[in-house]
Amino acid sequence: MDEEIEAKRDANCVNSHIRGKRKQLSVDNLISENAELKRQVQILEAVPDLVVAFEFSGRIFFASQSLLECLGLNKPEEVEGTLLWEWITEDSISLLRTAFADALEEKVRSQGDSAPLAGGNALLIHFYVKDEQGCDESILVSLKGVVHVDGDVPECVCSIRTIPADAQLKQMNTPILQGVNSISEDENTSINSTIQDDDEEEADGSRSSKRAKVTISVE
């Protein structure tokens, strides 16, 4: 009888030791994964391009510090968790959604891990930002993205670059811009930017603030 009790005790000790090892391994894996995620975030933060990552629904789950500064914001939570569609115009929403869906179809067709937006072509998108006084204004940026699937959730990671004002003026009358929503990256990047006056009279007779419409292209 004592031998049976001793055997059970030894077995319990072994099982406890194994569970402890598994738990420690799980913790070590989580620590390693967390460290890798932090490293990747640090790399993204160090990249000079503005970086945004969002789901197919439009929900933003990552925005680099450089993007926050460009948008005139200070905290990641001011952007993360919001919809990208809140920061771009309706025509741009349609363009991005279509490009996202097409990239997902291409990913499935090619059975690859990821697929570029618009087949790697440049996209023109209107983007809203705020100036130092908190007023809405427009900037011209170049955006490029890659689509992948994390579990069951389609995601897109995009890099964005601002376009100098003199380049905007120089390229606004370029014939290739007329009616173009995407251009291949081996062509000269050209963008058509317009300003949209959204001034509307309020019930009290005051005027609402203006919002400018920004054209964004992917290089």
Automatic annotation (TrEMBL):
Q: Which PROSITE patterns match?
A: PAS
Q: Where is the composition biased (Polar residues)?
A: 186-195
Domain (PAS): give its ranges.
Answer: 36-107
Entry-linked InterPro entries: PAS, PAS-like_dom_sf
- Annotated region (Disordered) at 186-219
Q: What is this protein called?
A: PAS domain-containing protein
Per the UniProt record, the source organism is Cyclotella cryptica
